[in-house]
Amino acid sequence: MAQGRKPVGVIGTGLMGTACAKRLLAAGFDVLGYDVAAPKLAGLLALGGRAARSVAEIAGSCDRVVLAVFHTAQVEETIEGPGGLVASRPRGAPPLTAICVSTCDPDRISALAARVDRGRLRFVEAPVSGTSEQTARGEALGLIGGERAAADEVGDMLDAICPRRHHLGTAGNGARTKLAINLILGVNRAALAEGLVFAERMGLDPAVFLAVARESAAYSQIMDIKGGKMVSGDFVPHGFVTQSLKDFALMAEQARRLGQRLPLAETYAALMQGCVAAGEGELDNSVVIREIRRRIT
What is the pLDDT of residues 215-260, one digit of tens each? Predict the structure, then answer.
């Protein structure tokens, strides 16, 4: 770390927060992390990061913070709540910049960005398209929303987390783009799982079939990212079932407001609900293949 350079904060050190921290540490940043579940800090500490005791400590020690919490309410609470970033920021300090990589309700994120006191905090919406593993490798795509000037000021951090990115306009558009992308990804995961089980039931070797499918017109990146996990039964999480279900609930809410049915998304959500009912909520979302198998008559 350069002499006198402040650490950057990471609030939420689950899969995505730890992946972001790994990228930042590799780029030479000093990372100070916090999570309400203290055991989740272990991964950050193993990478060489440091642990904070509270959001308030982050607000007092850092000028730039990554938010990688689970859902919109946690983003709002972390920024605006008692003991949150705004309330805890020392008077007279320059505005803190919060980079939110969480997948959130786009309308609530838009409203949050509009009402926050810019003299206290600048909000950069930055959900990423990609698994935590892809993010850790620098392969995720950043979906940036909000003031371009604020995003440009944290360009060095965004370069570390998501070297590929698009600025999509006002805050909320990053989440809107992420939800539409995740709808396609979820349906692709379910289609791949169903195709693999179908091939297996017809007597084909699923590993051989997957290799052929990856060279076929049916190819999608999902085959590379999730295919091997489905075939081998390796469901160590790179993206939780519960996370997928949360995202699809956000899609459903947006669709209700727009008066649109999402029949394929509804089917995928039902599959994820089946996984949760089977106790698989904290496994990788590729475990959808088990739910497909459970539906064999």
Answer: 999 999 999 999 999 999 999 999 999 999 999 999 999 999 999 9
Nearest-angstrom CA–CA distance, 198 and 200: 5
> What residue ranges of the chain have pLDDT lower than 50?
1-3
Q: What is this structure's pTM?
A: 0.93
Render the chain in DSSP notation, one character per residue. Answer: --TTPPPEEEE--SHHHHHHHHHHHHTT--EEEE-SSGGGGHHHHHHT-EE-S-HHHHHHH-SEEEE--SSHHHHHHHHHSTTSHHHHSPTTSPPEEEEE-S---HHHHHHHHHHS-TTTEEEEE--EES-HHHHHTT--EEEEBS-HHHHHHTHHHHHHH-SEEEE-SSTTHHHHHHHHHHHHHHHHHHHHHHHHHHHHHTT--HHHHHHHHTTSTT--HHIIIIIHHHHHT----SSBHHHHHHHHHHHHHHHHHHT---HHHHHHHHHHHHHHHTT-TTSBGGGHHHHHHHT--
Task: Report which of 222, 237, 235, 127 is spatially closest to residue 171, judged by C-alpha positions.
Answer: 127
CA–chain centroid gap for 240, Å, is: 10
Paired tokens of 20: 């972001």
